[in-house]
Amino acid sequence: MTDKKPEAQGIARGLTNYGDEAFSKYLRRSFASSMGYSREMLDRPIVGIAQSGSGFNNCHRHFPEMIEAVKRGVIAAGALPLDFPTISLGEVFVSPTSLKFRNLMSMDVEEMVRAQPMDSVVLLGGCDKTVPAQLMGAMSANLPAVQLVAGPMSTGRHKEHRLGACTDCRRFWQQFRSGQIEEEEINVVERKLASTAGTCAVMGTASTMASLTEAMGMMPAYGAAIPAVSADRLRMAEETGRLAVQLIGSERRPRSILTQQALENAVTVLLALGGSTNAVLHLAAIAGRVGLKLDLKKLNEISDRTPVLVDLKPTGQFYMEDLHYAGGIPAVMRELRHLLHLDAVTVTGETIGDRIENADPWVDRNVIAAAEQPVRVNGGLVALYGNLAPKGAILKRSAADPALFETEARVVVFTSLEDLAARIDDPDLDVTADDILLLQNAGPTSAAAMPEAGYLPIPKKLARAGVKDMIRISDARMSGTAYGTIVLHVSPDAASGGPIGLVRSGDRIRLSVEKREIELLVSEAELEKRRALTPDTRHHGTRGYDKLYSKEILQAEDGCDFGFLLDDPCSHGTPGAA
Ligand code: FES
Ligand code: MG
């Protein structure tokens, strides 16, 4: 990496090409003046604010106020702030699934950061895919950058229950499906689940990615967990604006911060948080932009030595706001200091070791456990391998039922999301509580584009009989706010010809979490026969972004990035190949 010290160039950076440099400068200054800025302001260095607010994104609804606070910090530190919109990905407003557009957003961020005249950039995101997309783009553009997040929603109340999106959404929905609560009550709960601005209130994907961004050093200490509606969130925005000015011309660029050590720190924190399975994909994708690989075998190694320390939903009892008031990510990292690379440098110039040293020593042990008395002795996630998942699969063991960890059982197969929807609640479905449910053709190369459908519903007749968990396997993802014994991201996926597409109802599968194995107990010869008879389900887009996506999408172990966006395509797999 070459990290030459560029001068701050402000409005003169990266001129529009008219074949006459002086004319280009003159024209740009003239048009910039039309925005009402004085010459004094236009002579300042420029901090871009890549902001992903949108009317289609509830989590970002307080961004106007946050942008004002960033601008305050930038102006106070002597630069000119200019915000610009990028694609926004409101998790529940994007079809078929927001993951499909994460790479598109990363391209938007990368190219606009590069194309517009700014000397550093504040990335303002929050909802699940927006922060990964911004970090991916920032890693590729490698202009000095600092991440600012929306912050988590505050909890609401329903009767005696504390409510936070969206683990409680699922709990109440399950109660409704199994007939424990009536339609009238679910309608009341619906209005109370997400009651403030900010990202989902539990350790879902948004909170996990915010926390990992802090752990990898791309935001100031405490930046991840301050509640969205708190005045401290605005002060963090102001501080971020000031920091972005300090970064101008500095060597602290995204690629010098995301080192192998920083990546391992992020993985360690992920495992200690019992964080979202989606974070494995996003970290792999962010790392891939700087030529690093998130090795799932390494993840298992780290998982074996890392305790789960926080007791947050979906696996525990608390919410993200509680994590902040309990001491935040610095307090979590202090408990992990023997497992972290303390000399990893962060965007503020402090090392992770400095941050731990400077952190408030007070900690609420109800929310953040001591390393000697953890919530769980080993990490929240494990990768599984076997003939069903030659390139790996992920299980969130901290959200799963240990009674199911060593299981051999019959499998009931659903060949697509449509098949699942059509048959899962059929009273005649041949299924028992001891079976494994398996969903095919919901991976990255399928038409479904890897939605969060891996949390297969318990068949209604079993749910009504009191069954709360079953082993569920798919090439899909699961929401970070969900829980259960659920094997996800099976790779290669069914639509690209992976073995998961060769499973038939009645086969037997053996899961061993202890051995990190997932085996389909069918002979190789039989699988070969089935392969010849299995239809090709790979999605082929015919035009536009859909076509680009279907040609370039990589498998889960490469973070589902596009092949042509990787730092070094030669050292990675062929796009989309099994
Ligand atoms: Fe935006 Fe959950 S919907 S973080
Ligand atoms: Mg989510």
Descriptive account of the structure:
- The chain has 578 residues and is of the alpha/beta class.
- The protein is built from 20 helices and 14 strands.
- The protein has helices spanning 21-33, 39-42, 63-76, 99-115, 130-141, 167-177, 183-192, 205-215, 231-246, 254-257, 260-273, 278-288, 296-305, 320-326, 328-335, 352-358, 417-423, 460-464, 524-533, 544-552; strands spanning 46-51, 80-85, 120-125, 145-149, 156-158, 161-163, 381-386, 389-396, 406-414, 436-439, 472-474, 486-491, 508-512, 517-520.
- The strands form 3 sheets. An 8-stranded mixed beta sheet has the order 7-8-12-11-10-9-13-14.
- Helix 8 (205-215) crosses helix 11.
- The site of FE2/S2 (inorganic) cluster has 9 residues, from loops.
Q: Strand fraction band?
A: 5-15%
Number of domains: 2
> Could you tell me which ligands this complex binds, including any ions or cofactors?
FE2/S2 (inorganic) cluster, magnesium ion
Rounded to the nearest angstrom, the radius of gyration is 24 Å
Give the strand order, joined by hyphens, for the main sheet: 7-8-12-11-10-9-13-14
Number of strands: 14
Whole-Å distance between the termini?
A: 31 Å
